[in-house]
């Protein structure tokens, strides 16, 4: 699993770099789109959302990046990555993110959180088909980043 683990680590390293580039105005929409299956799920305390990797997904990516810039997101760093093999084609990756934000009063805060991603190997590339998040809105409110 060493080559597979390295490949998944490289996938998330590129994912992290793409997000950081995007919050600083350099978006790679194709790279983001290519990270997801044609159909994917998001699970959070708000429910289950079904996403389609289509033109509407392409359109929402810049809006999401703009939102993160507007709330003061400065960086997202992977501080830990735990990879579990499910079978020969499917893996689960628990990513511990360390994020940095600048509040409106110019103070910098860090927020740590986990996201669990389920990946499938497709044509030698990794694709996200499910991700599980915590209550992001609650944490952002508790830290004074949104109302």
Please summarize what this structure is.
The protein has 147 residues and is α+β, with helices and mostly antiparallel strands.
Structure, described:
It is a single chain. With 147 residues, the protein is an alpha+beta fold. It has a single domain, classed as Nuclear Transport Factor 2, Chain: A (Roll), CATH 3.10.450. It has 4 helices and 6 strands, in the order H-H-E-E-H-E-E-E-E-H. Strands 2-1-6-5-4-3 form a 6-stranded mixed β-sheet, with helices on one face. It is globular. The mean pLDDT is 95.
Descriptive labels:
Nuclear Transport Factor 2, Chain: A; 147 residues; 4 helices; 6-stranded mixed β-sheet; alpha+beta
Strand order of the largest sheet: 2-1-6-5-4-3
Provide the helix percentage: 25-40%
Q: What distance separates the N and C termini?
A: 44 Å
The profile of the biggest β sheet is: 6 strands, mixed
Q: Work out the strand percent.
A: 35-45%
Which CATH first-tier class would you pick? Alpha Beta
- The helix count comes to 4
What is the N-to-C succession of helices and strands? HHEEHEEEEH
Q: Stretches where pLDDT falls below 50 for ≥5 residues?
A: none
Net shape: globular
Mean pLDDT: 95
SSE-based structural type: alpha+beta
Would you tell me which CATH topology applies? Nuclear Transport Factor 2, Chain: A
Counted beta strands? 6
Number of domains: 1
Radius of gyration: 15 Å
Give the SSE map.
Layout: H1 2-23, H2 29-33, E1 36-44, E2 47-52, H3 55-70, E3 73-85, E4 90-102, E5 108-122, E6 125-132, H4 136-142
Parallel strand pairs: 1-6
Antiparallel strand pairs: 1-2, 3-4, 4-5, 5-6
């Amino acid at each position: 699993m060493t080559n597979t683990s390295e490949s998944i680590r490289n996938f998330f390293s590129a994912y992290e770099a793409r997000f950081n580039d995007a919050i600083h105005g350099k978006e790679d929409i194709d790279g983001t789109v290519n990270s997801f299956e044609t159909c994917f799920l998001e699970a959070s305390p708000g429910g289950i959302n079904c996403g389609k990797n289509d033109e509407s997904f392409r359109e929402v990516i810049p809006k999401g990046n703009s939102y993160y810039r507007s709330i003061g997101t400065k960086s997202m760093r992977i501080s830990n990555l735990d990879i579990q093999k499910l079978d020969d084609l499917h893996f689960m990756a628990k990513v511990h993110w360390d994020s940095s934000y600048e509040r409106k009063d110019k103070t910098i805060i860090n927020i740590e959180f986990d996201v669990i991603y389920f990946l499938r190997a497709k044509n030698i590339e990794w694709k996200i088909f499910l991700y599980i998040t915590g209550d992001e809105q609650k944490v952002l409110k508790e830290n004074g980043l949104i109302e």
